[in-house]
Each structure stands twice: as C-alpha cells, then as structure tokens.
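Today's session is about reading a structure prediction critically. Students often jump straight to the picture, but the first step is always the sequence itself: look for stretches that repeat, for charged clusters, for runs of hydrophobic residues. Only then move on to the predicted structure, which in these notes is written as discrete structure tokens rather than atom positions. Here is the chain we will use throughout the hour.
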Amino acid sequence: MTARSSAFSRFWRLLSWPLRVAEARRESALLAGLDDRSLADIGLTREDLRDATAFALSERPSSRLAERARERQALDQAKRRPARAVRSIAAE
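Below is the predicted structure for this chain, in token form.
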C-alpha cells in the first residue's frame, strides 16, 4: 500500500465514522425491538444485547452477536453429545 492510498484510507475511515456509528445504532435498536422468543430463535439473549453496548461505537454489533450465537450453539451441541466411555486401566 502506498503512502498516498494509506492516507486516503485513513481519511475515508475518519470521514465515514459517523455513518458507521449510525448504522451500528440502527442495528442495536432493531435487535432490541425483538421479543425474547425472536432473539432465542437467532441464538441471542437480552444479556447479549446488553453486552453489545460495550463494543466500540463504530463496531457493528451484528458481527459480534453472530459470533456469540455460534459459540452458544457449539456449546449446546457439545453438551448434547453422549460422553465417550473411558476404559479404566486400573482394573487390568
């Protein structure tokens, strides 16, 4: 990346910051408007939404919340798997 394109990139990022903040707030408001059942359908809880307020203003909450939902789904799947039988070597 050249110095000129790097400078332009930083300038554009600074200039577009208010738009990113507005979009992140719109996403947060949309998710907050869902009822608990709808949130559960997409793998989220009210606590997840409250935690999302700790993110940077310009960070889109949807990407972090999607990550949280995937983690919860993987944990639930792991809990549902039957435990492997472990053979004891003490009896041998």
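Discussion point for the tutorial: The chain has one domain: 3-80.
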